[in-house]
Write a structure and sequence with these properties.
By secondary structure, the protein is of the alpha/beta class. It has helices at about 35-45, 65-70, 90-95, 110-120, 135-150, 165-180, 195-200, 225-230, 290-300, 320-325, 335-340, 345-350, 370-380, 400-410, 430-445, 455-460, 485-490; strands at about 1-10, 10-15, 25-30, 50-55, 60, 75-80, 100, 105, 155-160, 185-190, 205-210, 210-215, 250-260, 265-275, 280-285, 305-310, 310-315, 325-330, 415-420, 445-450, 465-470, 470-480. About 35% of the residues lie in helices and about 25% in strands. The strands form five sheets. It has a six-stranded mixed sheet with strand order 6-9-10-3-11-12, sandwiched between helices. It has a six-stranded mixed sheet with strand order 18-19-20-15-21-22, with helices on both faces. Strands 2-1-4-5 form a four-stranded antiparallel sheet, with helices on one face. Bound molecules: adenosine-5'-triphosphate and magnesium ion (MG). Adenosine-5'-triphosphate binds near residues 8, 13, 34 and 39.
Length: about 500
Amino acid sequence: MRGISKMFPGVIANDRIDFSVERGTIHALVGENGAGKSTLMRILYGLYRPDEGEIFIEGKKAAIRNPQDAIRLGIGMVHQEFQLVPSLTVAENIVLGNEPLKSIWVDRKAEKESIIKLSKRFGLHVEQDLPIREVPVGVQQRVEILKLLYRKAQLLILDEPTAVLTPQEVDGLFDVLKRLVTEGHTIIFITHKLGEVMDICDKATVLRHGKLIGTVNVADSSSTELARMMVGEEVLRPSEERHPASKEAKLILDDISARGDRGLFALKHISFKVNAGEVVGIAGVEGNGQSELVEVLSGLREYEGMITLASVDLKTESIRFRRENGMAIIPESRKTQGLNLLGKVSENLIVNKYYQKPYSAKTGVLSWKRITEFAKELIVKYDIRADGPDAVAGTLSGGNAQKIILARELSSKPVALIAAHPTRGLDIAATQFVHHEILHMRAENVAVLIISADLDELITLSDRILVLFEGRIVGEVDARTVTHAQLGLLMAGLTDAVS
Ligand SMILES: Nc1ncnc2c1ncn2[C@@H]1O[C@H](COP(=O)(O)OP(=O)(O)OP(=O)(O)O)[C@@H](O)[C@H]1O
Ligand SMILES: [Mg+2]
C-alpha cells in the first residue's frame, strides 16, 4: 500500500501511509485506539475507498473497489466483530454465497468433504452441523478463518483476533497461524498485546494518530521499543498505594443459582461478598458461568437466591432501580449490550441519567445544552477520540466505543461496580487509565467486581480472586501471592492441586 490517505469528518484516519507485507510472514499492525489500523485494513479489503494512494499485489497495481475484488485477489479479512449468521450451521456459514452445486442443488456432500479437508490441513477443528449461536467464540473465529480459506484467501487480515479469546484459545489460534504461514499464506495481525507480537510476528508496523511511525523486525526489537513507538513516550506503570478494604459488605450474593440459555444450571449455589473499597476478581475459562453471573447482577437474567446491594434486596427490581441505587455495569459485549450504535456519543453518555436534573426539567424537557457540556467533559477526561459529542457512536474505533461505556459507568459515582472485561480491545495507555480509574474507585470505597480473562489484569487489580468452574466457585486466593500456575490449575477444575 503506497501513500494511502483516508479522511472522515473531523479526522484523518490514514495520512499517506506506506505499508508492505512479504509472503509467508506474520506481520503485526499495532497502534493505540483510533490510530487507523482497522481503516487501513478496510481499504485493503475494499470496504473503504482511499482518498489517495495505490495498492500493489505482487508488484501489480490492483483496483480494489469492493470486497469481491479483494477476494478475487486472494485477500480475506476477519473483522473485530464477527459477521456470521447465528441461525445457520457452521458448514453453511463457511460456504455461504459460494455453495458447491450439483446441477441446481447445493452439493452438501462435496461441501462437507472440502470443509473436512481444509480443517484437517490447518488444524481448524469445527463441528460442522452445529448452529453458530451454539458454538463458543473461539470456534466462531475458526469458522471465520475457514470461510476465508474456503474462498482461497492467500492473505488473511485478522483484526484483533485474540481480544475475545481465552489464553488456551489464543495458543490454538497461534498454532493455526504458524501452520498457515508454513503453507505460504500471509497474515496481517492487528493486536494491542505486544507479548503476542513478540511471540509470533515476524515484522511489526506501528501507526499513531493516522500516521506511519515505522516498521521493525520483531527479532531486532523489544516490546518496550514498540510501546514507545505507539504512544510516543515511555510507558509508566501506575504506582500502587492501597489502604486495606473495609469490612462493610456492599454487594452480597447468597446462594445464587441461575439457568443458562440452554436451560441447564450455569450458576450453582454461588455465595460471596464484596466489601466497600475492595476489588474482587472472577477468574475462569470462558463459558463457566461468567456471562450468566454478569447478567444476573445486571437484572437481565432470573435467579434463585438473594442479591443485596447496600442492604437492598434486588430480586424484583428493575435495571433502572439497580442503577439508581448505585450499581454501575460494564457489560461483556459493548456493541450489543452497552451502546446504541446509531445514537450520538452524547446520548450514549447520558443514557443512565437523562431523566434526572440538571439534564431534564420536571416537565420532562431535556436540556441539550447541559447534556452536551457533560458529554464534552467526559470526552476530554476519558480521551474519547470522536468528532465531538454529536458523532454517531457506531463510527468510533473499537477502543473508543468501549471508552464511552467506561466514561458513563465510572462517572456515575456508584456503590458497586461490575466490570466485565473492562479493558478488552483497549490499547496500553487506555488500559492503564482504566486500571487507574478502577483503583481510584476502590480508594473511594466502591465495591468492585471484575470479571476478566486476563490473569495479569486480575492480579494487578484484585484483592481477592475467586475462580469459577462449571458454575461453581472452586477456589478463593489472595491476589498478592497467587501465581499464574495456581490460577491455571484452579481454572481447569483441579482444586486439589492448590491448598
Ligand atoms: N466509518 C467511519 N466514519 C467516521 N469516522 C470513522 C469511521 N471509521 C473510522 N473512523 C475514525 O477514524 C479513526 C481511526 O479509526 P480506526 O477504526 O481505523 O482505528 P483503530 O486503530 O482500528 O482503533 P481500535 O484499536 O480502537 O480499533 C478514528 O478516529 C475513528 O473514529
Ligand atoms: Mg480497530
